[in-house]
Amino acid sequence: MSSPPIAPENSECLLRIIEAAPQVRRRSQFFMWSQGDLQRWLPHKIMVCGAYDRDHREVVFDIFNSVPLPDDLVLSLKDARSTVMTMAVQAWRKGRQQAFRFSLDQGDCPDALRAALKDQGYDQLLVHGLCRPGRPEELESFFLFAQPRHLYGDDAMLALDMLLACVHMTYQRVCVTERQMAGTRLDASAQAVATYQRPPTITLREREILVWVRDGLNNQQISEKLGISALTVKNHIQKILRKLGAANRAQAVAKAMTMNALGASSVGSGDSYI
Asked: Do 58 and 85 share a domain, yes or no?
């Protein structure tokens, strides 16, 4: 099932988020980026970001909060082994690794921790992540969003799903830059991130189809535009999803835009754009 077309005003917001992402390299820049159009795209006062650390062999979390939080709550949200983060990851896995709304009124969340979050006005957590390439049992990155006195709807889950690849790549870049700025050598972990960020080859025909997908056209409409069969369009899209490691059409468009793969050069079939 294809994702519904994006409203024009939301398309502009998404485009601004993706266009600004490549300039984000430091932790402070990431926080400012998260408070701009990303805040309008996906409202939140707490954003917890995790990235796999090859040295520690686990996901290391950091927190970006625009409102004050008690120290013990901050420590729990940054601790990969804390009950709340463990339960959030488990809930995401049970949800087939899709964007997931985790209610603090369900499961076995400890009363003290539930009370600490509820005292701050939080009743629900929105989570999503990515697994390590070739190792589906291990996390590569994980993200948690929370907004006080707010319940996320299906639109928020779709919004997070569409932007996951962009947030992942941006945060990975920040982690590598901060390590370098701290004087550490560029180890295998950073090299793996650079390899992951290296864009795959997208043909000009695939790029043209992605542009029409971005504009909300379905397979039949795209086939009429290009003078090819709807089945051929479907096959192209399936190949694009595999190349980009995308779960759906919207995520493929977001990732392609992040890589600046939807340029304005002339289109001709068979040649490579990237």
From this structure: yes
